[in-house]
Specification:
disulfide bond; EGF-like domain-containing protein; single chain; alpha+beta; EGF; 2 helices; about 15% helix; about 140 residues; EGF-like_Ca-bd_dom; EGF-type_Asp/Asn_hydroxyl_site
Length: about 140
């Protein structure tokens, strides 16, 4: 169990988490002892949590994952705890991690028209023209 906790702390520190009490640094993105249930679309054995993280980052359907510590099993989820808070449950044998996302709306040059609103989504973004303008969001005319 010590090795599992050490691994969890190490991953949390690698991800730039901030201390909020408890045995190691955690953030809203990584939560030991919790899991998102009913949204797993793929489950598979791994050598360690880093393999789970790498697989999630490569799969566009993956929004988060649970790592089953004793069996070293990765559970890829199609949603996050923020999207489905009622399904975020205590499970001392698991570790929850939300996928990190780049905010395309903050990129330079802008991805949307100056007369559009940009909404960041996991792995993508949505552009929509502001009131009084028409277009696809990437180009808006008024």
């Amino acid at each position: 169990m010590f090795l599992a906790l050490f691994t969890i702390c190490l991953i949390s520190r690698m991800n730039g988490s901030e201390a909020d009490g408890g045995p190691c640094k955690t953030s809203e993105r990584s939560v030991p002892g919790k899991a998102l249930k009913r949204h797993t679309f793929k489950e598979f054995p791994v050598r360690g949590i880093v393999d789970c993280q790498n697989t999630c980052e490569r799969d566009p359907r993956c929004a988060s994952y649970n790592f089953f510590i004793p069996g070293k099993v990765c559970e890829l989820n199609s949603h996050t705890k923020e999207e489905r808070p009622d399904d975020f449950v205590t499970d001392e044998l698991r570790f929850y991690m939300r996928r990190e996302d780049d905010d395309e709306c903050l990129k330079t040059p802008p991805v949307c028209d100056v007369n559009a609103n940009c909404k960041n989504t996991l792995g993508s973004y949505l552009c929509s023209c502001k009131p009084g303008f028409i277009g696809d969001g990437k180009t808006c005319q008024g």
